[in-house]
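Bug #77: duplicate submission created two jobs. Keeping one. Sequence:
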Amino acid sequence: MTAPADPRRNRFKLLVPSEIARLPEPEWLIAGFIPKDALVLFYGAPRAGKSFVALDWALSVAMGWSWLGRENQPGRFGGGYKVQRGPTVYIYAEGTRGITRRYAAWAQQHGVCPLELRLLPVPVDIRSGQRDQFVEAVKATGITPALIVVDTLARNFGSGDENQQKDMSEFVAGCDALRTAFPNATVVIVHHVGKNQERGPRGNTALFGAVDAALLLRRKSGMSLELKTEKQKDGEEAPPLRLQLTEVELGDDASSCAVELSDGAPEPETPQANKKRTEDSDEKVLSALVEIGDKGALHKDWKEAAKAQGIKRTAFEHSRTRLVTNGRVRQESTSKRYFAAGTPTPSPANDFNNNGGHATLGAHPTEEAA
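Kept job's structure:
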């Protein structure tokens, strides 16, 4: 007969609403774009400039310098997206000549060579035992990476078929194993779009469903790029960002490019501005609910009312969660209607009061999810 599990060793802890309210906000490795302790998909068409941007991220994290900031460039000050500093490992499996020049261009532009970057110029089959050998090699250097870049998925997929759910799920599991081996690390997967670029990344959809964030890079014209957030599971989606590749002369008729903000692109948001934008979103979403009236609103009706005030779907969901968690909105558990705090629940039953005064966050009904 199996002995009962020791409750002191049970890793499943159920949270009450007051504990949910105290959960920490998601942390950023690169503010607004790359979450900390996450699986991130970074994709685009061939020659869109993905490796330039991915290497720029890696080197910025290794240095702890704001991404696209000006404090690290002669004669320029301030700005940029805040970065958490940490060692970086970059798996570059598409030829060393290109990465060598790109690294040299970055170092020349910024006047420094990051010491906390490790480059692996050969592929690693993330789906196989090679992954464990890679982990051993990283640990042997004595560093614990904050960021691991896998460039590209195709080169590190082994003999698998990207279109098969089983193979893609094995790849995702392999990336998660890297995060387990290096706690709090973020893994960025560099990948290609499919033949139809509007349908998202190439291969099985299990990949897009599994990642915490997905970023799409497009080459607009010439050296102009656009970085667009396609998915941000736990944070606010950043607005599209205009970038440009700037040529850097390396001598001996060699050159490469470095990534900069495009001329005329808005400066990155300060933390204070980001906080105000979040607060403004919450107020608009709450106002949309109040204007519906005392009868409250189902999820879909509230979402449509917020949309009429210019609130996008993702921003609405984040504001809805904050408002409920902070007690400014409650959800009646039987009808699933939302009410602003202080609004009496219509008869015959005040479910909020009958439920001991606890607001219920929960998932909204499936039929309202559209």
